[in-house]
Amino acid sequence: MKRIKISFEVEIYPDVTALSEQERQLMESAVEAREKAYAPYSKFRVGASALLDNGQVVQGSNQENAAYPAGLCAERVAVFYAGANFPDQSIEMIAITAASNEIDVDKPAAPCGNCRQSLSEYEFKQKKPIVLLLMGEKGEVYKCASISDILPLGFNNSYLP
Ligand code: THU
Fold first, then answer.
1. Is residue 6 part of a domain?
2. Relative to the CA of 73, which ligand 1 atom is closest?
C-alpha cells in the first residue's frame, strides 16, 4: 500500500481592492452579473464572469425555473456561453460571487460539483489552468490557481476511448 496526499493552496485577499486591477475588474463584472440573476425561488443570486484570452469578458448568472432542476448555475451559464460563442478562446480566469436576499453570504461562494466538472472540461480541453476568484457578497476573495485544485481526482476524457 502506498499513500499520497493531495493538497492545494488558496490565496486569501482581504477584499477586491487587494487584487490586481484586472482581477478587481473581473470580480466587479461578476457582481454586476449577480444583480441580473433570475433567482425567484432560492433568492440566492450568483454572478460569474469569465475572462477569455482575447480579453473578452463573458458574464453569467443563475437562471432558476419553477421545475427546479431545469435551472442552471451562474458558472455554467457563463462558460457555456463562452464555449458556444468563442469556441477557440481559452478561459483564463473566472470570478464568482454570491449574495442572498435572506441571509448574509459572508464567505466566498465555491462552485457546486456539477460546475466544477463543467469548468474542468474546458480546462482539460485548453490544457491551461483556469484561475478562480471566489467571493461572497463582498469581503474576502479566495484565489485558486486551477479548477483541478478544487476537483482532485476528476474525471475527464482521457478515460474515454
Ligand atoms: N448556484 C450557482 O449559481 N452556482 C453554484 O455553484 C451553486 C449554486 C445557484 C443555483 C441556484 O439557483 C441557487 O444558486 C441556489 O442553489
1. no
2. 3
